[in-house]
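To the wet lab folks,

You asked to see what we're planning to order before we commit. Fair enough. Below is the target structure as tokens, and below that is the sequence we designed to fit it. If anything looks off to you, flag it before the synthesis order goes out.
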């Protein structure tokens, strides 16, 4: 048995994983990262539009601050998020953007003076302040009150990943590529590391560590069509699920992005609509103002996706061999803007559709895009059930997104969450020891080896590729944008049948080293368990909240369902997850549940909402008229971050205010 020890083990070399590794290495801790692929090929590179941070530099962002970003995030989550975490995130996001600038991210910058932008289908001229010249720019995104999304054209994820990976390289952080973690080593109370398989040699290696951080991204590939990379199959979530101890949170919360191209499902960034692009139907009619007259194309993603689907159901979609679609029109932005700020979109359209988006409309429809659910953690990123197990980014349910994520908050979460949780991981490693039990390690290695032996030497007949395809079709058909009881029950039943069949998997290729069929067989059973947590959670949640839209229960029910779904897997032979619920305490919320701002307000109110609103008003009044927003916030809902991240953020508006009073001369 080959055993490798490290202090901090990170599974996944995307932005979140690398940022945790950097935080560990900065403390002098021995750090190792495992990755299926070379780090710079991670799915983080696919993020296009930008990351949210309340810098408030551009004229359209003036007045933005942590309070506004926090409120947008909570409303965007449909009150499903952890408000403490949302506060931590909003406070630290500006610090992360500026740190990334220091690491070499070429943020798009502001040019002083007049510039032309498209707002609500009209070209308008805005005047950028002379003092803002050269500062980091921001674009508009859905569900936000201010222009807050910092960007590098439409290749933001690419720019960030290269800068962060280069930082990791400069710190000599080893990334063990072509390594797939397949089993967590644990004793029921403490995580000891993972058993990983080399995708090239087939060798099993035990990585033992004080802390193990899962940063493997989302589980979009349990669906047939997804904007996710093909490696985003939910195996990271399955690692935690199969412990029988660690729990997953809100797995039914799956986001569909409004504008993926038809038929391949590749994303066209929300920046297209943020910069002024329009959605049109088969008649060329701009339909979103009919449904959402205030936010139009820039409503939250879950809302836009549902409105698009409703419109196509009315027969307003464009017929195609791949089913109906709608049009995304960015021609009004002009060729210069498209070729400068949306050049990845232009290349995607040219290479996959054979069209020029500067003059042609883009065929789009909603497609699975993001997983709000994941490994349930506390505010420090650690699993409450399994000490030493951390998770960050899309793999985790930290939980700042609740039941719907705002565009730009995911890319931000990778680096902001990685920055915050990385410090807590380092604290944990410094404050805890690990007694290495080789017999425990050997038992997990042996169990995985037996699974591989059975697949190669056994007499199973089920084809892993066929099971996976059937699973993806079930999820697409029955657990999509709109959901209902009969279809969800059918999904659960059919997925259970597939899980039974997965016990009889067989391989045609008997190689033990580089064998894609073996890789698929090892993954598909784990993926089926993840799919069942999604379907079972959706079937049990009899309300509509954020991206979870039940046609048979259209109301958001704060009275009965203001909670977080927790899923665990009882034992290896079980066919269903065990569901329980973690209540959200309204009396601890800074922003009690209210009207989100879309459609009719049909929510069933929580009995404590009015009481909490009155309590907050009383707290604010007792502080007196001289209390600033920071003092008010701390009195209503105090939150904590590592000491180095506690200082307040300074903005251009602060500088200008000080300058006008003579306090600052520049």
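Sequence we intend to order:
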């Amino acid at each position: 048995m080959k055993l490798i020890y490290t202090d901090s083990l990170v599974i996944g070399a995307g932005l979140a994983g690398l940022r945790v590794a950097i935080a560990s290495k900065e403390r002098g801790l021995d750090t190792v990262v495992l990755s299926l692929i070379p780090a710079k090929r991670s799915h983080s590179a696919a993020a296009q539009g930008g990351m949210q941070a309340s810098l408030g530099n551009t004229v359209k962002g003036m007045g933005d601050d942590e309070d506004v970003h926090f409120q947008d995030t909570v409303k965007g989550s449909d009150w499903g998020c952890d408000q403490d975490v949302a506060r931590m995130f909003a406070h630290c996001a500006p610090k992360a953007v500026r740190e990334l600038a220091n690491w070499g991210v070429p943020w798009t910058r502001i040019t002083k003076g007049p510039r032309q932008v498209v707002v609500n289908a009209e070209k308008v001229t805005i005047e950028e302040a002379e003092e803002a010249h050269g500062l980091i720019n921001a674009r508009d995104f859905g569900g936000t009150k201010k222009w807050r999304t910092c960007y590098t054209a439409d290749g933001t994820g690419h720019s960030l990943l290269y800068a962060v990976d280069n930082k990791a390289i400069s710190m000599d952080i080893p990334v063990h590529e072509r390594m797939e973690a397949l089993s967590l080593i644990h004793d029921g109370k403490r995580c000891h590391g993972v058993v990983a398989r080399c995708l090239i040699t087939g060798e099993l290696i035990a990585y033992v560590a004080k802390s193990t951080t899962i940063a493997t991204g989302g589980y979009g590939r349990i669906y047939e069509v997804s904007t996710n990379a093909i490696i985003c199959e939910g195996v990271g979530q399955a690692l935690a699920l199969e412990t029988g101890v660690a729990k997953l949170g809100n797995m039914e919360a799956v986001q569909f992005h409004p504008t993926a191209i038809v038929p391949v499902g590749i994303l066209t960034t929300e920046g297209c609509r943020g910069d002024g692009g329009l959605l049109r139907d088969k008649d060329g009619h701009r339909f979103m103002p009919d449904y959402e007259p205030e936010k139009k194309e820039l409503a939250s993603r879950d809302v836009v996706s549902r409105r698009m689907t409703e419109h196509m159901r009315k027969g307003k979609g464009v017929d195609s061999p791949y089913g109906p679609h709608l049009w995304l029109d960015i021609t009004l932005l002009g060729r210069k803007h498209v070729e400068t700020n949306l050049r990845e979109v232009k290349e995607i359209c040219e290479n996959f559709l054979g069209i020029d988006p500067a003059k042609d409309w883009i065929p789009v429809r909603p497609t699975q895009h993001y997983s709000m659910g994941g490994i349930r953690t506390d505010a420090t990123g650690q699993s409450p059930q399994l000490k030493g197990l951390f998770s960050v980014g899309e793999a985790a349910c930290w939980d700042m997104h609740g039941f719907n994520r705002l565009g730009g908050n995911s890319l931000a979460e990778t680096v902001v969450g990685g920055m915050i949780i990385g410090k807590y991981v380092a604290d944990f490693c410094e404050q805890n020891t690990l007694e290495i039990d080789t017999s425990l390690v050997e038992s997990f290695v042996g169990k995985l080896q037996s699974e591989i032996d059975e697949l190669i030497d056994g007499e199973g007949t089920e084809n892993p590729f066929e099971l996976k395809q059937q699973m993806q079709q079930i999820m697409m058909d029955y657990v999509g944008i709109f959901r209902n009881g009969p279809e969800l029950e059918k999904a659960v039943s059919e997925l259970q049948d597939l899980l039974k069949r997965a016990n009889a998997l067989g391989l045609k290729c008997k190689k033990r080293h580089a064998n894609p069929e073996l890789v698929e067989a090892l993954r598909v059973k784990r993926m089926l368990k993840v799919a069942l947590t999604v379907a079972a959670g959706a079937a049990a949640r009899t309300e509509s909240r954020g991206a979870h839209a039940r046609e048979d229960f259209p109301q958001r029910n704060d009275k009965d369902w203001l909670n977080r779904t927790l899923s665990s897997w009882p034992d290896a032979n079980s066919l269903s997850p065990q569901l329980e619920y973690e209540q959200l305490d309204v009396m601890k919320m800074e922003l009690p549940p209210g009207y989100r701002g879309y459609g009719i307000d049909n929510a069933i109110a929580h009995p404590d909402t009015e009481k909490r609103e009155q309590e907050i008003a009383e707290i604010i009044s007792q502080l007196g008229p001289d209390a600033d927003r920071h003092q008010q916030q701390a009195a209503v809902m105090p939150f904590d971050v590592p000491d180095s991240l506690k200082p307040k953020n300074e903005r251009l508006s602060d500088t200008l205010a000080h300058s006008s009073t003579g306090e600052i001369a520049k």
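Structural context that might help your review: The chain has four domains: 2-108+127-254+370-431, 259-368, 443-583, 614-659. The CA atoms of residues 456 and 510 lie 5 Å apart.

Thanks,
Computational group
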